[in-house]
Amino acid sequence: MPCEDCMESNNKSTDATMEFLLLGFSELLCLRVLLFLIFLVVHLVTLAGNVMIFTAVVMEPSRPPMFSFLCLLSVIELCYTLVIVPKTLLSLTVVDGSTISFIGCAAQMHLFVALGGAECFLLVAMSYDRYVAICQPLHYLAVMSEGFCLKLAVACCLGSFAIALGLTVAVFRLPFCRSHRINHFFCDVPAVLHLTCTQGYSPELPLLAACVLLLLLPFLLIFISYVCIASALLHITSSAGRGKAFSTCITHLAITLLHYGCATFIYIRPKSSYSPARDKMVSLVYTNITPLLYPLIYSLRNKEIRRVLRKMLRRKKIAQLN
């Protein structure tokens, strides 16, 4: 039975002028000012932390291959927050939610998925780096050359942007119901899919394919890397050597669990279990809290990053004295 309350996506003149209404946290009107201040402070601290790590890594002339991945991770987190947080802050300044155009919503979704996917692929590259460092230490510098790391980084970005483009096009080709009120603070895929009129599981197929390529497959590769790493650690007789080798993996493991845990909870489930309130809370974690935690995790757990940061701060202090 055709949906009487749908707007077909092939009506290009309508799509060009169509707008969505991001409701944001309209149900928490009494907390708008507090939420705005919290988000603003978290956003500024996140930007400062990631910029500091990026600057410290770039200024280090003899940086190991892993630093190149950390540098790209900081850039991704910077872009990630800039795509989402400004619109979130804007939605907190208006009572009835903020509007976003059809094209603007599609662009935000594409960038969000692309950056999140690039991070998934980058975590695979970082797990491979740890695998080579622990399982093939004598060949580490030969395998993880600067050129190879650059190719890996480019492949991560190009692959994720291509998959995100396919997902975004597939979602926005679906017919939308006349109510264009997105009960979210940004154009997340499940929230937009919830507005489609198409029945059955067909609207979820593009999202399922993207989840397999961006979440399940990368996580499987990371799991295989750590199985090999665990096997290699068992053959290290020295407990000190084993502890030192494992400590280099802790930061990567922590970030992997944070990123994949939140993403899996949001995306790998049927449309029928969609819960706006629950999704918004989890989305808050991976769009605001997680990018804030990354610089803290790396600066607290990684000795080389701490050394580089101290070196950068000393340079800055000397420059101020001069």
Notes on the structure:
The strands form two sheets. The protein has a three-stranded mixed beta sheet. A two-stranded antiparallel ribbon has the order 1-4. The protein has a single domain, classed as Rhopdopsin 7-helix transmembrane proteins (Up-down Bundle). Helix 4 runs parallel beside helix 8 and helix 8 packs antiparallel against helix 9. The protein is globular, with a radius of gyration of 22 Å. The chain has eleven helices and five strands, in the order E-H-E-H-H-E-H-H-H-E-E-H-H-H-H-H. It has 322 residues and is mainly alpha-helical.
Order of helices and strands: EHEHHEHHHEEHHHHH
Q: Quick check: average pLDDT?
A: 82
Overall tally of domains: 1
What is the CATH first-level class name? Mainly Alpha
Low-confidence stretches: 7-14
Largest sheet: 3 strands, mixed
Give a brief description.
It is found in: Cell membrane. This protein is mostly helical and 322 residues long. The protein is 73% helix and 4% strand.
